[in-house]
């Protein structure tokens, strides 16, 4: 009797924990979807002027339109595009009409065009402010001599280019940059695996219950005499 009670407690208790974890992941899924929906709404809003004082927390994804001048000097961030292959994000210093210096992510250029001379001069750029979190302990150090970066690190790029730590990711530019395809900000890279996690926990709960029932039935089955 004690062993049967123990199996019941372990079986039901373990299943309850696994089900709770699945429910928690469903709640996290709803939370993440709300965040992504809010970001998408913010990205698609009408562009405004760049704030006089840019706040990383308040102004992330803010759509803005700026006018100014592209300067010489670039940072090349190694990326890959589906159906195209390896290439680089082209990050260029941009001087606003009020004298502030920011960075503009002009978009994607194929690897063979990495060192092609690009036009500078006056331009109007519309895009979204972004402080991407692309670096971690596994990210290689930038090859400054070869001008190859492996992630967009806004503070480090700003120090290299001599700008404010403000990155505007281009949606459109007038005039357009020859040989560069804009890579506008989107939410596709924001991880959202909570549904898969929930399915995993619920599946484990079902397996746990099934195994518990199997052991209980085996425990209660009459022993046959040999």
UniProtKB/TrEMBL annotation:
Keyword Membrane: yes
Membrane topology per record: Multi-pass membrane protein
Top-rank lineage group of the source organism: Bacteria
Chief location category: membrane
Transmembrane intervals: 195-216
Subcellular location: Cell membrane; Membrane
Annotated keywords: Cell membrane, Membrane, Transmembrane, Transmembrane helix
Family, similarity comment: Belongs to the SURF1 family.
PANTHER family named in the record: SURFEIT LOCUS PROTEIN, SURFEIT LOCUS PROTEIN 1
Protein name, entry field: SURF1-like protein
